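Hi all, posting the design record for the shared folder.

TITLE: backbone redesign
STEP: 1 of 1
STRUCTURE INPUT:
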């Protein structure tokens, strides 16, 4: 069999396996981080101030392509099902989380001069704005789903929404830039950025602990 025929025969399968592996990998990372976040006494069982998966989802889709949104959906769905959400509620929450990541990436890609390395002030400011606005989608869809399932009572809607939005925004602002920076860095700059990352993670942990123990609602 000619070499060209072999390449045409096996390349699609290899590409498919690579994509499936990427989706599964993102789903596992997302679900694992989600389970950690949902341990912190969430409002209604599903809304907490620490939601790193948002940053993972945005960075994954921005760097890897639209198809990785499937990993975000599967990861969010799995995490919420394991937390005890009804199937319909878990699905709606996962849809909100997926739309959040997709909306953020669409907004960033529509800005022709945006550089995901975030080395310029303008890039950082634009990303920060998107990171604060995109979680409105997830928070709104998620709290609506929880209310429809009577998991959140009417008096807790605003508290749950605020906690959900805050957790997602913090995750997007802190985690996504770390992933983008590390993924797009030269090897020689990786060590210094890792040090910066550790400092940022420590800061996030301290701030989250202060907010959490101060009684501010904690995600989705």
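Okay, here is what came back for every position:
SEQUENCE:
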């Amino acid at each position: 069999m000619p070499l060209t025929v072999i390449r045409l025969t096996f390349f699609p399968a290899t590409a498919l396996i690579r994509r499936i592996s990427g989706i599964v990998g993102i789903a596992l990372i997302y679900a694992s981080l989600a389970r950690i976040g949902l341990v912190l006494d969430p409002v209604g069982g599903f809304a907490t101030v620490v939601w790193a998966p948002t940053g993972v989802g945005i960075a994954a889709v921005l760097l890897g392509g639209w198809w990785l949104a499937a990993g975000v959906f599967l990861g969010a769905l799995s995490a919420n099902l394991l937390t005890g959400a009804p199937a319909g509620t878990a699905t709606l929450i996962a849809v909100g989380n997926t739309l959040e990541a997709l909306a953020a990436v669409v907004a960033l890609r529509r800005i022709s001069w945006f550089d995901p390395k975030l080395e310029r002030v303008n890039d950082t400011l634009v990303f920060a704005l998107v990171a604060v606005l995109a979680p409105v989608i997830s928070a709104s869809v998620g709290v609506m789903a929880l209310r429809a399932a009577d998991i959140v009572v009417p008096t807790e809607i605003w508290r749950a929404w605020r906690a959900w939005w805050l957790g997602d925004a913090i995750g997007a602002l802190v985690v996504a830039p770390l992933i983008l920076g590390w993924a797009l860095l030269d090897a020689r700059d990786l060590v210094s950025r890792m040090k910066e990352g550790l400092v940022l993670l420590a800061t996030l942990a301290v701030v989250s602990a202060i907010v959490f123990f101060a009684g501010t609602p904690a995600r989705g």
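COMMENT: Residues 3-37 form the longest helix (35 residues).
Let me know if anyone wants the other runs.
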